[in-house]
Amino acid sequence: MKFITFISLIIIIITVCCPNKISAKTESEQIKLDNIKNKIIQKEKKLKEYKKKEGQVIERLNRLEQQLIKENIKVKEINWKISEIKSDIKKSRETINKLNSEINEITTVLEKRLVALYKYHRRNGVRILLSSETYNDFLRQDKLLNEIVSKDYEMIKKSLNKIEDKIKHEEKLGKQKTSLEIKKDSYFRKTSEIKSTKKDKLALLADTRKKKELQISAINELKKYAEKLQTFIDDLPSDQSDFKQLEGNFSLMKGKLSFPVKGKIISGFGRTEHPDLHTFTFQKGIEIKAPSGMEIKSIFNGKVIYADWFKGYGKMIIINHGDHYYSIYAHADKLFKQTGDIVRKNETVALVGDTNSLNGSCLYFEIRHKGEPLDPLRWLEK
């Protein structure tokens, strides 16, 4: 008891005598504690952001593919510019070669002239001139001599002009070569960016296939974009006057339509259960597995009412076949038709691709009537 009292007394004395030291130590510990708390808060915040970002599969896929489109457009522009510069370089070289040839011809003629003039002076040209029998002969010889000198002067002047032109074209050629090298560097940088973006896209798809939570997130996102497509189709105009010029009645074509693309059906119409996730979804169309670049054909005569990017479906075409019947072709690589184009049955409208597709290269295909989805397999030939 006395010992505890003694210790307490020492602590009181230290506290009274050295308050600053204890206060400083406490303050230091508090700062450390606050720093740890802040780090924990920051890590939790980053984790939430990462989970949110990781969950946006289709959104991220959409961004990567839009980036790829821009990069590919840029590469095409650079390629076109490279071709243009190469064509200019070829023209410049041809011009320089032509000037060299002309300069050589003039130089050859001038050399002969100089030899003739040298011989003339060696024979004492003034004496020859003065040896004219008549005054008219003298004038004639003087005139001829002036013409020769004048022509020689013109040839020398012409030669100098061509040499100047040659120098200008050589300078221009130098600049063209520099410009070509810059464009080539830009091309290689941009193609490297495309490779990197494609790598990111493949990594995202591979990651999605491995992780169930990402697959569930992707399915939920696709539901959201399917609702947006439904709203879009519900708002389509009902005017059928454009179809007076088109032959046939779509409603009579049930079971007679050709497949838009040849391939394997990998997902069917209607309510389906995911084999791994055991979640149920209602698919309003079918997916047909086909190699990238295969032609997609219109199933019937109609008018293109949409041909652009649609989030969740990638590059997409919607064709109005009259009487409120529509066909939808999505995940395309390239679209050959524009909004307003009239298309015929079995006409190529696009190429198979994998834009916004989680299943790789395939065609997503729908048939709708008054906005309601119909089972495409009931309309296509067996």
Might you state the CATH topology name of the largest domain?
Helix Hairpins
Overall pLDDT? 78
What is the helix fraction of residues, given as a range? 55-70%
Describe the oligomeric state of these chains in a short phrase: single chain
List how many beta strands DSSP finds.
Answer: 12
Radius of gyration (CA) equals 42 Å
How many structural domains in the coordinates? 2
First-residue to last-residue Cα separation: 100 Å
Any idea what the shape is? elongated
By secondary-structure content and strand pairing, the structural class works out as alpha+beta
- Ranges where pLDDT stays below 50 over 5 or more residues in a row are 1-7, 49-54
Beta-strand percent range: 15-25%
Largest β-sheet summary: 10 strands, antiparallel
The helix tally amounts to 7
CATH architecture of the largest domain: Orthogonal Bundle
Order of helices and strands: HHHHHHEEEEEEEEEEEEH
What would CATH call the class of the largest domain?
Mainly Alpha
